[in-house]
Amino acid sequence: MKKVTIHTLRKMKQAGERITMLTAYDATFARLFDAAGIDALLVGDSLGMVVQGHDSTLKVTMDQTVYHCAAVARGSRRAHLVGDMPFGSYQASADEAVRNAMRIVAEGGMEAVKLEGGAEYAEVISRIVRAGVPVMGHLGLTPQSVHKLGGYVVQGRGDDKAARLLADARALEAAGCYSLVLEVIPADLGGEVTRALTIPTIGIGAGADCDGQVLVCYDLLGMNPTFQPRFVKKFVDLARVIGEAVGRYQEEVRSQEFPAAEHTFSSEIPKPAVAAGAPVLQLYSVPGKG
Ligand code: KIV
């Protein structure tokens, strides 16, 4: 097992090897994605929507971010780990941004942070990088600016806006970003930005020419049957699989087929094991430990 680092990602770009990234919010999913060989895991502030059920990412707090980051860090071994800086954690001042980035690394066990925004964040980014924390940039549809953007709409359309986005991308590279997420922009602009930078770009709805791709894991897994934006491909229909499994569980509970004899305990006390203080039962599954 070779740990994926920021250097691995840069070498992958140089070699023309595509980078795979997925979001993860807990240890169980992190463990599964890590075992499947994913290159990078992002504890995205999308957790505010897919985990917490809010209609935007804006309510996610630093404490919640650190909590989810620590869970993902416990579940993964190989993947490069990135924690999203939540809304309000880096906008007010560079000092506060540095302190919060350090919490994500020190308490959350992440290896890098991601933050949204262009050239206006160059100073904040270089302060965080100088403090020893790698920064992934994020341009295009930046969900924390949903009210400023007037909704979740395609960004970078038209020559002026495309030129502005390219200039922002260059500014982020110059400020010290080691990679850049491009979200929901025209595919040709995604390719142009990717060719203009030496750092890897990771696209979500930004076309096939980015150096890598990221998806929200619940989208790729098809957890929400009514959510089908253009940039999402559902690689499995887990909403159906889960619905069927829960349906079978209910049938078997009602018909008293479950629990069967093999799922129940006898009243006999296993004396030697108890006397030796050995654990007699694994109560809940811990990722990687069964
Ligand atoms: O919060 C998130 O999950 C993200 C990705 C979609 C890039 O920012």
Task: Describe the protein's topology.
Layout: H1 6-15, E1 19-23, H2 27-35, E2 40-43, H3 47-50, H4 62-75, E3 80-84, H5 94-106, E4 112-114, H6 122-130, E5 135-140, H7 146-149, H8 159-175, E6 179-183, H9 187-196, E7 201-204, E8 212-215, H10 217-220, H11 238-254, H12 271-275
Parallel strand pairs: 1-2, 1-8, 2-3, 3-4, 4-5, 5-6, 6-7, 7-8
Bound molecules: 3-methyl-2-oxobutanoic acid (KIV).
The site of 3-methyl-2-oxobutanoic acid has 11 residues, from strand 6.
Describe the structure.
The chain has one domain (6-238): Alpha-Beta Barrel (TIM Barrel). 40% of the residues lie in helices and 12% in strands. The protein contains 12 helices and 8 strands. The chain has helices spanning 6-15, 27-35, 47-50, 62-75, 94-106, 122-130, 146-149, 159-175, 187-196, 217-220, 238-254, 271-275; strands at residues 19-23, 40-43, 80-84, 112-114, 135-140, 179-183, 201-204, 212-215. Strands 1-2-3-4-5-6-7-8 form an 8-stranded parallel barrel, surrounded by 7 helices. Helix 2 links the parallel strand 1 (19-23) and strand 2. Helix 6 (122-130) runs parallel beside helix 8 (159-175). It is globular and about 75 Å long. It starts with 5 loop residues before the first helix and ends in a 15-residue tail after the last helix.
